[in-house]
Structures are given as C-alpha cells and as structure tokens.
Model the fold of this input.
Amino acid sequence: MQNKTVRDYIRTIPDFPHEGILFRDVTTLFADARGMRLCVDQLVAPFTGEKIDVVAGLEARGFILGGAVAHQLGSGFVPIRKKGKLPAATHEQEYALEYGTATVEVHRDALQPGARVLMVDDLLATGGTAKAGIALLERLGAEIIGCAFVVDLPDLGGRAVLEDMGMPIHTLCDFDGK
Done:
C-alpha cells in the first residue's frame, strides 16, 4: 500500500456552499488518526526549533489545528474569532467577503508585545481572513514568524496577498479551482 499524503485525506464536495464551488473538506482529514497526525507533524516541521510563543488559530478549523500545533511546539494558543464570540475587551478587524464583509476579533490582552506568533488555518483562499488576523496580531505588537495552512487554493491569490505583506507561507497541498 502506497503512503497517503495529506491531500489524499481531503474530500471534495461539488457545489457547496454555492453552485460551481468545489469545497475542500478537511473534516475527513481530521477524522482519521493517521491523517491528523501527518497533518500536524507537517505543519509543525518547518518551525521545530524556532522560538514560538503563541500559535494563533483562525475560526473555526484553525482552532482544531492551532491547538494541536501549539501543543507540539510547546507554545500558547490564541483564538481569532468571529465578532461577538470573545467575552473580554477586543480589537476587531473587518475584511471583505464575496458578498459583503465580516469581522474577526482577538482579546486585547491575548499576547505580550514582541511575542513570536505562528498563525494557522485550514485553507488559504483569497487571503482576506488571514490578512485580517495578521492585522489584529500586529496591532497587539506580535512578531509574526509565519502562516501555516493545510490547503492553498492558488487560483484565488491568497498566497500572493500574504507574501506582498512580507509573510512567510507554509502550505501542505494545493488544489486548482475555487
């Protein structure tokens, strides 16, 4: 039996959430013990031995990955959540969606200025959510050492958006299309 890659564990669901979209579903990756271990190990690998104070996870699948990555690195974890989900004082950042806008937040006391942060999420598409997360972390004085994603959708241009901001990007696989 040939060794499976992270990409092999991800299923594609056509026409979700809208017609013409090929949804890359990582829940099948998370549900498989070998797949999840492979994924976390590969997300962590480029940062092993690097001083990382905090892993920041973008809502919602970034929480699953970010917690596991933080555990492996011996780092803290900070959630970047949708507006209205955090109980204490927050900073917020609006970003564009296909139709309209959304807002993410982070607690104002989530990390110390100068903290070295790795941002994690499941998928890099247009880069809007990640860009908003970076803005929040930088507002807190973080030094962002990298952004790690399971899936890159290169046709949507998110990597270029983040690289134009000077962000090092690490992805495990990519898929063509939307």
Observations:
- The first strand starts at residue 11 and ends at 14.
- The radius of gyration is 16 Å.
- The chain has a mean pLDDT of 96.
